[in-house]
User: Fold these one by one.
Assistant:
Number 1:
Amino acid sequence: MSVRTAELLMALTMGAFSIYLMYKSAELPIGWIDGEGPGGGAWPFWLATIMLVSCVGILFNWFRRHGPIANSEKAYIESRVLMDIGAVALSLIVTVGLFSFIGIYGALPLFLIFYLRFLGKHSWRLTTTLAIGIPVLIFYFFEVTLKIILPKGITEPLFIPLYKIFF
Amino acid sequence: MLETLGLLANGFTIVFEPQNLALIIAGCALGLFIGAMPGLGSVNGVAILLPLTFLVPPTGAVIFLAAIYYGAMYGGAISSIMLGIPGASTAVATTFDGRPLAKLGMADKALTAAAVASFVGGSISVVLFTFFAPPLAHVALVFGSPETFALMMLAFATFIGLGGDDIFKTLFSICIGLVLSAVGFDIISGEPRLILWDITGFLHGVNFLVLAIGIYGIGEMIWTVEEHNLGGGKSMLSEATVTVKRTIANLRELLSSWRATVMGSFLGYFVGILPAAGATPGSLMAYGIAKQISKNPEEFGKGALEGVCAPEAANNAASTGSMLPMLTLGIPGSPTTAILLGGMVIWGLEPGPRLFIDHSEFVWGLIASLYAANLFAVIIMLIFIPVFIKILKTPFTILAPIIFILCLIGGYAPTQSMHDVWLMVVFGIVGYLMRKLDYPLAPAVLAIVLGPLAEPALRQSLLISDGEFSIFFTRIYAGPIMVTAIILLFLPVLKIGYDKFRHRPA
């Protein structure tokens, strides 16, 4: 996909999103209410309208091929990095998805192993050290010190003895 | 004047509390590290690390984050000089002459110059700050809602008039930030508003940190993955010999660059105050002017010390300058200060001129900490130059997953909701895709912080005037501010018209 095509798709998507935001804002009054001033929907409604106008402006520039982006036929994301970026983005999504199931202490070591060993090609020794060490540090810093309880999913029962020690 | 000095002295007693002192030193060191890593700058560091500050009181938290801000301005020079890659966009101008010096085997000279110039820039600007801030805050005390709204319009108008990005994309970025900040509840009627796709997670709104960490954490890291090709590209690290004797000799040689350094400091400070400008254009402008006023302009680009001093003084001065409107008016002067401002709201402080009265110890603690951070940063940098050079050798593939994890937890910590973590990942990926198309994202971050303050200001103003927009033009302070904002808004259009007029075929 060329940069030019991506520019068109992005402007169309954002334009559609602006219309959706206008529609959602209009669920609240967007006109003037006596004694209260502008209705609750007015502020986001008019801002979303400006968003839509901006998108139309971007599309207008696209059609008349104005500016470097609208003229660029280069690849939007070069194929040599597409795999890397895809792998990183996907691993992030999978990791966040796993937070709710196997918990943060199940998901983070998997993420670290994947990133360090398979993307970074580091040694197993370094990979395992960090995959164990970082979650332990996180537990101490966030849960023990800051008292912010992180999601555990099905691993929750395993932490009950630890809670007894620290809290 | 005397009163200011007294307040500053009070600030120092806060700074010298052991915990705060430790926070400044830790912040400077972390900031130097963050600044030195290519791809990470002060804004990324402050966004990612803000959730860690919930542990300490607001004054300690802001001192820590300001020290990171400062440290990062110093640190940016390290990779500009050693790798030829700017450690942050603010250090781009430092590569022009810093890199040639390193190639000539004088990396230590360039690093010393950067550190000392940064110190001078920081010192001059912090003194200016100390004496500018109280009168400005005093004037701002009489500001009502119309003035507040006019100031915010001015902040956004600078992005359109001076930002230099595509006007439509800038406008889009500002408005999407403002709309996202309106998600949740309508503050006046109390009704749920903009619950997108009826997902209940949107009921507690879109936290500015979710957007900030999404863009400056996740999006920035994906951007860096692309540039580094997962660390496949081998770095071209220069060698530097650092000895005490050489450092002293380098310091002596620096005296000849004092003009460029002082000019850069003043220029950076005043450019830094403008929301859309800040440290990056400030340092580039300082470089340009230093070349013009130099006695040996032909040396620029080949390794002129003045070419290192001017931008480095300017970017530090600009970081202080950008704090002036943040503290006195509640309008951030840069994306980093926008995040600091958002942090203040989380810590329960109301940004604006009343801070100087209601939270005097917070304000003066912060100002005094800038003096201290400036001193510590230069000392740490000069002593630990060899250590920072070693750190630059850390492969990106080790650092990246750690930063990703910090982002994910940082997005979860403030609200403890998985909805926010998902939203952050979405913002990160969409932000990356938009950035590739030259959508400026800093205005969106500024807007999401200012949105919750701008909307009530507008609605109250209109309520006072019974719906007449003329209220923004007829008041003594609001009028000129609003007119300036409108001139800035139409500046790009005027410029296009002027260019067409000039290039008209005769």
Number 2:
Amino acid sequence: MVKRQFNKLPDIVARLAHFGSEQTYRELFDLLFLPAKKFAFCILHSNEEAEEVAQDMMMTLWKQRKTLVEITNVYVYSLVITKNLSLNVLKKNSKNKTSSLDDTDISFFFDSSSPEQIIIDNELKMRLENAIQSLPPKCQLVFKLAKENNLSYKEIAEILAISVKTVDAHLVAATQKLAKIFKSEFQIK
Amino acid sequence: MHENRIVELLTRKIAGEATPDELGELSYLLTKYPDAVYYEALLDQVWDLGQEGSQNDLDEAFDKHKLSKQDDLDFEIKEKVLYSYLKNHVLVISIITFIIFSTSLYFSEYYHSTTKEVRVDIYAAKGIRKEIKLPDGTYVRLNSDSKLSYDLDMQSHDQRDVILIGEAFFKVAHDKKRPFIVKTNKVAIKVLGTEFNVRDYPGDKESETTLIKGSIELTINDRSDQKFLLKPSEKLALVNNINNKLKKGASSVLMIDNISPVKLGDQEYIEEIAWTENKLVFENESFEELMPKLERWYNVKIVLNDPAIKSYRFTGVFIKENIIQALEAMQLIKSFHYKLIENEIKIF
């Protein structure tokens, strides 16, 4: 498993401001595009729309490249932009006046490309996915951001505009659901 | 119920948010209820499910992205093309306007933003080499078609940062407390006080750092965990492997070498830094490799499509020759024709 090296972000952002070169932009793209696309997919359920949103997010960063150095955490910033752009798409699609994450369906799947698991087979994976999908939207997103994006409570709170305490409560609720399935599946006493 | 508390604590542990007290409580609970250890193993497994997409997806996604946003993605490399079309006499004026424009741009940015940095950009156009003395006393010689950016107030910071596109020779003023750092698109070089040459032109396959005196510490932007220490007379070349574009990890090759003087007649030249004495030295180089160097040196555009001529190899030095004399000298070694139309030279 390759860990994305987000500690390089400040350096990449600084170089992008000065060089504006394709090579540096590509480094930024490699770090931020896929997480944004996956995040947008959870909200939009459409691969094409998610890709468009992730591309537009990258364009927003490109246009702001001269001032991006002033932003403390560009990774979090990129996901905030992604969330807002995704909500805009929802708004346009449904023609509703408002769109909020609270009344949005979230799709959650464990990646199919994961290495073979010994304990968790496909059937169990589906049960776990169903369990997660029965949770409230923000709860699912917290779980996704904590698990797949390795973000801290504080960062997740910033992205979803909720408090750190709520992040903790959501994540614990999600793992409790999973634990309940484990308990019956593996007869843990 | 104990397992609810255990799962709660495990969650915080995996998320990296557990306090030392909570970790203590967790390990106590796990010894008391040994079966609960399964929860930890299982949650760990869940966390590992599907973490990464592959690099191939990214290559494809990036190409698609470039295609769909090509009107807005104005990468700054284009700047170079513009300059190559300008004529000599227009150039002098354009350099001056460029410097005035870019400094005023930075000043205006300074007033509009909250950052307190005043950065100065110096640009040496094609056919021009420039000498600069930085605020800290460091001497820089900037080669043709290169840009150096530095902070006017560099001495009030912990380190002296400059950003280079192209090629420059540095004689760094000694200051133990404030390391001097040269950043290019591919590498970063940290020094205390020394003499060295850096070449990293956008579009060139190879970037090269040559140390003359002292010692430097070099990091490559792609792999910041590795550091390379260079000794005097050593050079480090980073060659982009174009064929291997798909595999990002192996996209560049590193070569550390000693510099060897080029003997021409009864003179010896060090190719890497000869340009600082206004000499263009090349040893056993193909016409293809030489082309960008001639273009920058003489501010011309060379059009050469014949693969046979591209592979002609030359060794030599140009000092006072103009481009016509240079080409005529090269014709003595290998036969080819050229045609000069304004600033463009066709070789056939």
